[in-house]
Amino acid sequence: MVESTRRVALVTGVSRTNGIAAAVAHRLAADGYDLFLSGLPGYDATEYGTEDRTTEVITALRDAGAAVGYRPGDFADPAEPAALVDAAIARYGRIDALAAVHAYSTHTPLAEITAEEIDRHLSVNTRGSLLLVKHFAAAYRQQVELGGPGGRVVLFSSGQRLGPMPDELAYIASKGAIEALTLSLSASVAGQGITVNAINPGPCDTGYASGEVYERVAAAFPTGRWGTPADVAPVVGWLCSAEAGWITGQVIDVEGGFRRG
């Protein structure tokens, strides 16, 4: 174990060089955090036909001077959240922030949805995030003597409360639960000096859309462009800073005025 004197952030959902998790990791590293990352190898290839770029993300972070640990894992395994937090503690001896960026997502009409698909969304997106917060809070409770501005948790939701998403029913069920959890989790850990907030990044260009769909979504933004990970990461950085210590239990929409038809 390398005892870190710097604050340590755990960031989940790392796989793409142009992904939100990678941008969040770069921002937190620039803000002085050491990093422990998590991702699910093969997910992008299976769901989107794109190659996993985790190694490139880690290399870029280290080339920029960041200390980076990594553990692959699948939150469909209920033991993985605890194992991930334990791995971060084993690496650095502390953990100060959690950015749960990971998401499992499929597009399935109501008539074709299965119980297995619903269960996987809920186990990865909802249960995985809730257990991560549980184990993060337990670990943070053991390090109060290290001081600092307090613990920080940033969860990720979606735009499900702002407009219909009819072919993403399992996904919106899992992400709607994240928004409901945010307020109650914030009350559960406030006494430990931990804040809990959630971000809805809106449609974010991470390489998953193209052609007519890409153009149609871009036209729904007042600026005529998609949101990018670079638009989202600074908000995570601020929520994980000392300045945001009085902000908790909030869902923040970071979607550039996106207009739902």
From TrEMBL:
Keywords: Oxidoreductase. It comes from the Bacteria. One of its GO terms (molecular function) is oxidoreductase activity, acting on CH-OH group of donors. Gene3D superfamilies: NAD(P)-binding Rossmann-like Domain. The keyword RNA-binding does not apply. CDD domains: SDR_c (cd05233). The keyword Oxidoreductase applies. InterPro entries: NAD(P)-bd_dom_sf, SDR_fam. Pfam families: adh_short_C2. Belongs to the short-chain dehydrogenases/reductases (SDR) family. This is 3-ketoacyl-ACP reductase. It comes from Actinocatenispora thailandica. The lineage of its organism: Bacteria, Bacillati, Actinomycetota, Actinomycetes, Micromonosporales.
